[in-house]
Amino acid sequence: MTLDEPQLLSRHEDGAELSMALWCFRSPLLALSSAPYGGGWGERHWILAAQVAGGYHRTDPAGHLAGLARDLGLDGPGIGMLTAVDVRRVTASREDGAAAAATVGVTHPCWAAATDAGTTAATGAPGIAGTVNIVAVLGRRLSGAALVNAVMTVTEAKSQALWEAGVAGTGTPSDAVAVLCPPSGPAEAFGGPRSRYGSRLARAVHRAVLDGSRRAGTR
C-alpha cells in the first residue's frame, strides 16, 4: 500500500483560481482523521485537499467540501481538508511501508499551550490562513489503539520539523491530519514513534513537513 502522487486540479472561486489535490484509493482504507469533512473513524475512498482564498470566513467548511466533492463526482465516503496554501506545493516522503504528504502554511503558528485561547486565532476559525495538513498512509493494518497512537506520532513529528525549521509554534490552530491503513490483515499493536511502523511514519512525516516548511518560509 503506497500513497500515489495526487491528481492536481483547479477551480474558480471568490474571484481567484484555486488549486486542489485529490488522492483516490484503489480500495477503501481505514482512516482516523481530524479533517472538517469526513473526519473521525471509518473507511474512506479518497482525500481532497482544497485551497481557499486568504481571509476565508465561511463557517461551514464541511458543507463547502461536500459541495466540492459533488462537483468532482467523487463516490463513497472521503476526507476533505482546506488551506490557503497552494496545494500544488505538496511535499511527500516515504519509508518502507509508510508514506506522508503535507501542505505546509505557517502564516499563523501558535504554541499549543498558549494562554490566548479566547482569541479568534487560537480557536482555529476558518479565516486562519496558515495551515499544516498531513496525509499519511501505512502499508499494514493498525489496531484501533495503534491508529490513535499513529496520529499522535504524526503530530509529534510535525512539531519537531517545525521547531527545526525555526517556526515559533507547535503547529497552527487549523491543522488537520489523516492517517490511513488497510482495513484487513494482521494488525500492528503499536503506532508510537519507537514502534516498527510508527518510527517509519515519524521519519516520513518529519521529512515532508520540514521540506514544506522551508519552502513556505513565512507563508
Question: How are the secondary structure elements laid out?
Answer:
Blueprint: E1 7-13, E2 16-33, E3 40-51, H1 61-72, E4 78-83, E5 91-95, E6 98-104, E7 132-138, H2 144-164, E8 176-181, H3 196-216
Parallel strand pairs: 3-4, 7-8
Antiparallel strand pairs: 1-2, 2-3, 2-8, 5-6, 6-7
Helix pairs in contact: 2-3
Number of domains: 1
Rg is: 16 Å
User: Describe the biggest sheet?
Assistant: 8 strands, mixed
CATH class descriptor: Alpha Beta
Q: Summarize the helix and strand pattern as letters.
A: EEEHEEEEHEH
CATH fold field value: L-amino peptidase D-ALA esterase/amidase
Describe this structure in words.
By secondary structure, the chain is of the alpha+beta class. It has a single domain (7-216), classed as L-amino peptidase D-ALA esterase/amidase (4-Layer Sandwich). It contains three helices and eight strands. It has helices at 61-72, 144-164, 196-216; strands at residues 7-13, 16-33, 40-51, 78-83, 91-95, 98-104, 132-138, 176-181. Strands 1, 2, 3, 4, 5, 6, 7 and 8 form an eight-stranded mixed sheet that branches. Helix 2 (144-164) runs parallel beside helix 3 (196-216). The longest helix has 21 residues, at 144-164. It is globular. The chain starts with 6 loop residues before the first strand and ends with a helix. The model is unreliable at 118-126 (pLDDT under 50).
Quick summary of this structure?
The protein is of the alpha+beta class and 219 residues long. The protein has helices spanning 61-72, 144-164, 196-216; strands spanning 7-13, 16-33, 40-51, 78-83, 91-95, 98-104, 132-138, 176-181. Strands 1, 2, 3, 4, 5, 6, 7 and 8 form an 8-stranded mixed β-sheet that branches.
